[in-house]
Specification:
It is a single chain. The chain is mainly alpha-helical. The protein has one domain. Helix 5 runs antiparallel to helix 6.
Length: about 190
């Protein structure tokens, strides 16, 4: 009987602690749940857009921009964008596949801004600025991966899987933090400050 009462008291303490944790962190918990919901929904919609060829077009845009930038920086590379691959005349080819178009970072920024409590106008501006930033950073990531693939192929997998993805995630989080620090409490233009 004593063990049953101890277990019951322990369970009551756990429930009380969880309730207190929720009360103390309600805003952060709601932000996290809304963020995860939007992020998963965006990824799901993107996945189901595959038949519409949306990912394919994004991959092609990234491929063309990366190839152009490589050729501007180092004309001797003489790369061409062929579909979703960056190629050279001598047969070297790097494919820009599913997930290599930077959408994870874009979805992170959009979901975080949508979940955060701030004026809608700053959310929209933030999403647009974040999308542009991630697109440009992803082009740099692909260029870096091309040079790694071309000159240090043994390091390509590490750079692609660990460094490249971490790079995009890091800058997505950094952008969000800087954006909310500067715009979360900013009034709309033309409105009086309170």
């Amino acid at each position: 009987m004593v063990r049953f009462l101890d277990a019951r008291n322990t369970m009551g303490n756990i429930i009380h602690s969880l309730r207190q944790f929720y009360r103390d962190n309600r805003k952060e918990i709601i932000f996290f749940l809304v963020f995860i919901s939007i992020y998963v929904t965006a990824h799901s919609l993107y996945y189901f857009s595959k038949p519409l060829k949306i990912p394919f077009y994004l991959q092609r845009i990234n491929t063309r921009m990366s190839s152009l930038a490589i050729n501007l920086a180092t004309p001797n590379e003489a790369t061409i964008a062929a579909g979703t691959s960056i190629k050279t005349k001598n047969g070297l080819s790097m494919s820009v596949g599913w997930g290599c178009e930077g959408v994870e970072g874009i979805f992170m920024i959009i979901a975080a801004l949508a979940a955060f409590s701030m004026r809608r106008k700053w959310k929209v501006y933030g999403a647009l600025a974040g999308i542009a930033m991630i697109f440009i950073l992803n082009i740099f990531r692909l260029i870096f991966l091309w040079y790694t693939f071309r000159y240090k192929p043994a390091l390509f997998d590490i750079m692609h899987v660990y460094v490249g993805q971490t790079f995009i995630i890091f800058f997505s989080v950094l952008f969000f933090v800087i954006w909310i620090k500067n715009f979360a409490n900013r009034p709309l233009p033309g409105s009086a400050r309170s």
